[in-house]
């Protein structure tokens, strides 16, 4: 509830970042080095959302800068995107200790923040990276093997936009054969961005 009130009161991304930096309602903040708010261009037409920062992101204060981030950069480059043309964030903005999975409670606490962040960025297309991001933001219980490659509708609070679910780059590093399907998703993204 406190997160919802705080997030709702943020009039722009700078205010939202400050509110989140000072938000004491999520215990992950105490163990993390710093808030990992976002990277990229807040005016971009496409926004990527992952699960939670890892060690590299926690130290840098930026999302997707470690191994999976490098893969994400290569996947974006393959369709002509770089971080000046995309905005990148996570559902949970603080690193869970030891890179454990965020608990459902931690995710629920952080949800109003990422929802407001999406609303303020107001992208044309939202890309959910991996199952936790997909299940949380697109409100589905289905697993990522079922949802990847599928287009969903997402209500930003201002308007309805298109949302695409795809595999998380960390999963692709472990299961490189699945890159074939992720490539298909990125081509669909490229096509959608050209419209
Ligand atoms: N995995 C994520 O989900 N987000 C990051 O920022 C890095 C790795």
Task: Provide keyphrases for this structure.
single chain, 195 residues, alpha/beta, Uracil-DNA Glycosylase, subunit E, six-stranded mixed sheet, 46% helix, 14% strand, binds uracil
Structural class: alpha/beta
- Overall pLDDT confidence: 97
Number of DSSP helices?
A: 10
The total domain count is 1
> Alpha-carbon distance between the termini?
38 Å
CATH architecture: 3-Layer(aba) Sandwich
Please report the total strand number as a whole number. Answer: 6
User: What sequence of helices (H) and strands (E) makes up the elements?
Assistant: HHHEEHHEHEHHEEHH
Main β-sheet, spatial strand arrangement: 1-3-2-4-6-5
Please specify the SSE layout and strand pairing.
Layout: H1 2-9, H2 13-21, H3 28-31, E1 39-40, E2 46-50, H4 55-60, H5 67-78, E3 87-90, H6 104-121, E4 125-129, H7 131-137, H8 144-147, E5 151-155, E6 160-166, H9 169-174, H10 179-194
Parallel strand pairs: 2-3, 2-4, 4-6
Antiparallel strand pairs: 1-3, 5-6
Helix pairs in contact: 1-6
Residues 50-54, 57, 63-64, 66, 68-69, 90, 170 line the site of uracil.
Can you walk me through this structure?
- The protein is an alpha/beta fold and 195 residues long.
- It has ten helices and six strands.
- A hairpin with a 4-residue loop joins strand 5 (151-155) and strand 6.
- The N and C termini lie far apart (38 Å).
- The model has no long low-confidence stretch (mean pLDDT 97).
- The structure holds uracil (URA).
- Uracil binds at residues 50-54, 57, 63-64, 66, 68-69, 90, 170.
